[in-house]
C-alpha cells in the first residue's frame, strides 16, 4: 500500500473514504454505544479518495464529536456552519417517515435543521471547500448558514442477515446502523407546518 500524495484534511476531506478502506462487516461499535454497526478499516490516505462516499466510522465520529468533516478538528459554538442542510419542522420530518426516533419532547411545530449525515464545518473550511470542490460549485442548493446550538442524532438503519454456518440456514435479519443523521434544533416554531408539503429526502453521501 502506497500513501497518496494528497493530504487528508487538506486536499481530501477527513471524512472521505479511500479505496484501501474496505467494509469489513457488522460488529459492535463504540461510536454508537456498542450497538451493531457497519464498519470498515481505517487507512485514510491510502489508495484513491472516494469523494462521493463517507467513511462509516469517521462519519459517526464527526457528528458525535462535532468534528469538522473537512479538516477533522473539533468545531466550537459560534463556528459551526452548514452548506446544504434543509430547514423543516419536526412534524413534517416525522410525517415524511425520516424521523421515527426523533425525541418526543421536540414538538411538531419546532423548526429543525436537517443536516443529513454531514457535520458542521469551520467557516474557513466552508470557504475552502466551496472554492475547491467542483460538486459544491455546481450545487444550486448550497446555502451557508450557522448550525443551531442544540441538536439530536438519529441512527440510519439497514437490515443485515448473518451468514449461515456449514449446513445451516441464514439467521434472522438484524437492524444495523450505517450513518448517524444530524438534526439541529432551533428556537423557532412553524405554526403552519401541517399545511406544508413533506420535505424531499435529503441525499446522504456514503
Description:
It is built from four helices and ten strands, in the order ββββαββαβααβββ. With 206 residues, the protein is of the alpha+beta class. It is flat. A four-stranded antiparallel β-sheet has the order 6-7-10-9. The longest helix has 10 residues. The two termini are 23 Å apart. A hairpin with a 7-residue loop joins strand 2 and strand 3. The relative contact order is 0.20.
Question: By helix and strand content, what is the structural category?
Answer: alpha+beta
Main beta-sheet annotation: 4 strands, antiparallel
Query: Could you state the order of secondary-structure elements as H and E?
Result: EEEEHEEHEHHEEE
Mean pLDDT: 90
Low-pLDDT ranges:
201-205
Number of strands: 10
**Strand order in space, largest sheet:** 6-7-10-9
Counting DSSP H or I runs of 4 or more residues, the number of helices is 4
Distance between the amino and carboxyl termini:
23 Å
Proportion of residues in β-strands? 25-35%
Taken from the alpha-carbon principal axes, the silhouette is flat
Summarize the amount of helix as a percent range: 10-25%
Q: From the alpha carbons, calculate the radius of gyration and give it in angstroms.
A: 18 Å
Short description:
With 206 residues, this protein is of the alpha+beta class. It contains four helices and ten strands; from the N terminus they run E-E-E-E-H-E-E-H-E-H-H-E-E-E. The strands form four sheets. The protein has a four-stranded antiparallel β-sheet with strand order 6-7-10-9. It has a two-stranded antiparallel ribbon with strand order 1-4.
Amino acid at each position: 500500500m502506497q500513501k497518496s500524495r494528497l493530504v487528508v484534511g487538506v486536499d481530501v476531506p477527513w471524512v472521505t473514504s479511500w479505496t484501501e478502506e474496505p467494509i469489513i462487516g457488522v460488529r459492535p461499535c463504540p461510536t454508537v454505544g456498542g450497538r451493531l454497526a457497519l464498519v470498515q478499516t481505517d487507512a485514510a490516505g491510502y489508495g484513491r479518495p472516494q469523494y462521493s462516499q463517507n467513511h462509516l466510522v469517521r462519519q459517526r465520529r464527526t457528528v458525535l464529536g462535532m468534528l469538522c468533516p473537512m479538516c477533522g478538528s473539533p468545531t466550537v459554538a459560534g463556528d459551526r456552519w452548514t452548506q446544504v442542510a434543509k430547514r423543516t419542522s419536526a412534524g413534517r420530518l416525522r410525517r415524511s417517515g425520516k424521523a421515527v426516533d426523533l425525541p418526543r419532547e421536540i414538538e411538531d411545530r419546532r423548526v429543525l435543521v436537517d443536516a443529513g449525515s454531514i457535520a458542521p464545518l469551520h467557516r474557513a473550511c466552508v470557504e475552502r471547500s466551496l472554492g475547491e470542490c467542483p460538486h459544491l460549485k455546481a450545487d444550486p442548493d448550497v446555502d451557508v448558514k450557522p448550525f443551531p446550538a442544540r441538536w439530536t442524532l438519529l441512527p440510519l438503519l439497514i437490515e443485515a442477515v448473518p451468514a449461515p454456518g456449514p449446513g445451516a440456514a441464514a439467521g434472522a435479519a438484524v437492524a444495523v446502523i450505517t450513518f448517524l443523521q444530524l438534526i439541529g434544533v432551533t428556537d423557532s416554531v412553524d405554526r403552519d407546518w401541517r399545511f406544508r408539503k413533506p420535505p424531499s429526502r435529503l441525499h446522504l453521501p456514503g
